């Protein structure tokens, strides 16, 4: 590996940094976007049971807030009623909707960075290719034909092109995968939130 880095020259270092960052973001998103952290099993049943016996106390609301990202959205409706018992159903719905936007922002965290890496890596590889070509043409003149410099320029071009694609392709694939996961979680959160909002409205009627 060290020999490849030496052969590729300085343009490969930005690509190495991009690859490390991409791996870190992919690992972080794989952990944070698990269903158990977004919409734990039986969360909705727990929220419904807690409210059927009357307005829940602070401990119950706090526990709901700490039960997955969706729990925070559901708890926001209860918080709105806790702060203002005379709040309208529209006020409760708006509070949950705002919490849902914050949750969506949390779900999409780092995805723009991963998409940027997927877009920039081929360009960085192309930069390395251009640098290698410059070295080739600089070494190949009418009075100075040095095979070693020509080989070095070719290696710089090819290694950077290859590494740029190696970084970009997985980053793009994981970005698209995470986008699908986020969209699925957002749809599930929206369905659960709407059901809970209707439940609260029914209890207050």
TrEMBL record:
InterPro entries: ExbB/TolQ_transport, MotA_ExbB_proton_chnl. It is a multi-pass membrane protein. Residues 70-190 form the MotA/TolQ/ExbB proton channel domain. It holds the Pfam family MotA_ExbB. It is found in: Cell membrane; Membrane. It comes from the Bacteria. The chain crosses the membrane at residues 12-31, 110-134, 154-175. The keyword Transmembrane applies. Its main location: membrane. One of its GO terms (cellular component) is plasma membrane. Keywords: Cell membrane, Cell projection, Cilium, Flagellum, Membrane, Protein transport, Transmembrane, Transmembrane helix, Transport. GO terms for biological process: protein import. Belongs to the exbB/tolQ family. This is Flagellar motor protein MotA. It comes from Limnohabitans planktonicus II-D5. The lineage of its organism: Bacteria, Pseudomonadati, Pseudomonadota, Betaproteobacteria, Burkholderiales.
């Amino acid at each position: 590996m060290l020999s490849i880095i030496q052969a590729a020259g300085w343009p490969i270092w930005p690509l190495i940094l991009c690859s490390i960052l991409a791996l870190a973001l992919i690992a972080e998103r794989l952990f944070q976007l698990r269903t158990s952290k977004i919409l734990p099993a039986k969360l909705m049943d727990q929220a419904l049971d807690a409210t059927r016996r009357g307005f829940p106390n602070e401990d119950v609301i706090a526990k709901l807030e700490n039960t997955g990202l969706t729990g925070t959205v559901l708890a926001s409706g209860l918080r709105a009623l806790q702060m203002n018992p005379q709040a309208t159903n529209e006020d409760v719905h708006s509070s949950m909707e705002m919490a849902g936007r914050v949750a969506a922002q949390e779900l999409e965290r780092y995805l723009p960075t991963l998409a940027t890496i997927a877009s920039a890596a081929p360009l960085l590889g192309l930069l390395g290719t251009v640098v290698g070509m410059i070295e080739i043409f600089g070494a190949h003149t009418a009075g100075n034909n040095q095979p070693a410099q020509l080989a070095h320029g070719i290696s710089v071009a090819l290694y950077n092109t290859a590494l740029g694609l190696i970084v970009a392709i997985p980053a793009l694939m994981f970005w698209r995968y995470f986008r699908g996961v986020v969209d699925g979680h957002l749809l599930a959160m929206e369905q659960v939130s709407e059901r809970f909002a209707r439940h609260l409205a029914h209890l207050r009627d």
